[in-house]
Amino acid sequence: MTLLSVKVSTCSFDGQKPGTSGLRKNVTIFKQKNYTENFVQSILTALGTELAGSTLVVGGDGRYYLKEAVDIIIKMCAANGVAKVIVGQNGILSTPAVSCIIRKYKTTGGIILTASHNPGGPNGDFGIKFNCSNGGPAPDGVTNKIYEISMDIDEYSISPTLQVDVSKIGTTQHDVDGRKYTVEVIDSVSDYFEMTKEIFDLDAIKKLLATKKLVVLLDAMHGVVGPYVKRILCQELGMPESSAVNCTPLEDFGGHHPDPNLTYAAELVKAMQSGDYGLGAAFDGDGDRNMILGHKGFFVTPSDSLAVIAANIDCIPYFKKTGVKGFSRSMPTAGAVDRVAAKIGKEFFEVPTGWKYFGNLMDAGRLSLCGEESFGTGSDHIREKDGLWACLAWLSVLASKQQSVEEILKNHWATYGRNFFTRYDYENVESEPANKMMTNLGKLIEDASLIGRGFNHGDKAFKVAKADNFEYTDPIDGSVAKKQGIRIIFEDGSRIVFRLSGTGSSGATIRMYIDSYEADSTKHCLDAQDMLKPLVEIALQMSQLRELTGRQKPTVIT
Ligand code: VG1
Ligand code: CO
């Protein structure tokens, strides 16, 4: 039976501008008539000549509105001349799994349905992101094009009578407007699991878990990683079911923020403090972020986690096969990995916030391992950050070194020195004072007399060496990303960074980052908040954050 597509006329919506990682808005916004359809059509139209006959991967993190969005996308792809859609069973695919599947089956790209770590549910957030044929998030050039199309869209195409049951694994063929259209529903975990076999020595991890010397606790925060943890860690590597908590994906993440940090993953932190576990990890809604904890809740900052994996990269067989290329981190991430790169003679790159900036470097064979302070770690095995990969990387290091997480960190600091780091998030601030603060800071850094100026707090004194708004020129394609965060760098290398979040769905979120290096090993075990207090105070005074926003305390401290 031939199904017929229709063109539906529509009006454009303001603000369909993808942020740091896709378009994220409250569910109620996505549910407005034509809102989702408009944005999906903009993505498809932006594909231009690649659209006809293309193959796209579709999947998301199980949050509320996923099923409706998957259905719309399948019907719209059919009408727009896409030849094939590969969709996860029940629409479920983690973000790293989508990247893996795009690369494995060499598809044209993929559409990921997630608002990542933002809360979900009928009043929570939803999100749509497009990834290109390299498996990575669309670069600025593509997202700008999608946005432009969304601004003067007046119709979209859909095949309204097409019915596909995404709960059943298998391939169905459809005749749409006289064209063949294929939908393949795949197991959500299998391709990703196959990939991990190529990267890690899973037998070594299995042995480590079997010795009972290391008991782990993995918290999927009711996000998409649950099925991956159960299948790979429990079924294949013998981890007891009791080590896998919150591993059933829920549409509202159980009412929580599926964000693996010390505040929102408090349940894991508390369980770890009992002393019963040697390694703890939590993952975000879409499975690309991770938090690593050691015995009794010893916290590994994401910046340190990246540096430790870099320093122990030989523990991961994948890198023996591919060779170790460069290392990279996002600008606000503490500079711990820089020191590993310098010591072992690897190229190093500092890029703006957002995973899309790593892709070109990886495609050009210049980058093996990278990370962000926001609990993102990954490598060139795919083009997204990968939470479970980071956990398996840590298990690989533990299996090979036979040391505790804390011992590994302390030895690392003894060799390289320690970068103390903290991030203060002020969520849901009103946009106007937040913008004013950034404008004022913009003026401050343009004032030539700032360089050399001294700032004191208690007995600590800092002198400004450099101040700018971070700008990045991609070494591969020469594209320039401007205004990526205000940096004030002091003579001792300490840094204060301010930027506004690009992933929030309402108001503004101010992020304040502080990074300070300490070579003196007698100070390495001091508390990061104590160590950084003087710089925090200086940053708050410089920015007048409290006065302008009325916020005396941040929402989250990491
Ligand atoms: C945040 C993080 C950034 C990360 C981005 C997407 O962006 O700071 O490092 O790449 O989220 O991560 P922003 O603009 O809010 O600071 V995810 O796991 O939300 O896709
Ligand atoms: Co995420």
From TrEMBL:
<dbReference type="InterPro" id="IPR005844">
    <property type="entry name" value="A-D-PHexomutase_a/b/a-I"/>
</dbReference>
<dbReference type="Pfam" id="PF02878">
    <property type="entry name" value="PGM_PMM_I"/>
</dbReference>
<dbReference type="InterPro" id="IPR045244">
    <property type="entry name" value="PGM"/>
</dbReference>
<protein>
    <recommendedName>
        <fullName>phosphoglucomutase (alpha-D-glucose-1,6-bisphosphate-dependent)</fullName>
        <ecNumber>5.4.2.2</ecNumber>
    </recommendedName>
</protein>
<feature type="domain" description="Alpha-D-phosphohexomutase alpha/beta/alpha">
    <location>
        <begin position="16"/>
        <end position="156"/>
    </location>
</feature>
<dbReference type="InterPro" id="IPR036900">
    <property type="entry name" value="A-D-PHexomutase_C_sf"/>
</dbReference>
<feature type="domain" description="Alpha-D-phosphohexomutase alpha/beta/alpha">
    <location>
        <begin position="191"/>
        <end position="297"/>
    </location>
</feature>
<comment type="similarity">
    <text>Belongs to the phosphohexose mutase family.</text>
</comment>
<dbReference type="InterPro" id="IPR005841">
    <property type="entry name" value="Alpha-D-phosphohexomutase_SF"/>
</dbReference>
<keyword id="KW-0460">Magnesium</keyword>
<dbReference type="InterPro" id="IPR016066">
    <property type="entry name" value="A-D-PHexomutase_CS"/>
</dbReference>
<keyword id="KW-0413">Isomerase</keyword>
<feature type="domain" description="Alpha-D-phosphohexomutase alpha/beta/alpha">
    <location>
        <begin position="304"/>
        <end position="416"/>
    </location>
</feature>
<keyword id="KW-0479">Metal-binding</keyword>
<dbReference type="Pfam" id="PF02879">
    <property type="entry name" value="PGM_PMM_II"/>
</dbReference>
<dbReference type="InterPro" id="IPR005846">
    <property type="entry name" value="A-D-PHexomutase_a/b/a-III"/>
</dbReference>
<dbReference type="InterPro" id="IPR016055">
    <property type="entry name" value="A-D-PHexomutase_a/b/a-I/II/III"/>
</dbReference>
<dbReference type="InterPro" id="IPR005845">
    <property type="entry name" value="A-D-PHexomutase_a/b/a-II"/>
</dbReference>
<keyword id="KW-0597">Phosphoprotein</keyword>
<dbReference type="Pfam" id="PF02880">
    <property type="entry name" value="PGM_PMM_III"/>
</dbReference>
<dbReference type="Pfam" id="PF24947">
    <property type="entry name" value="PGM1_C_vert_fung"/>
</dbReference>
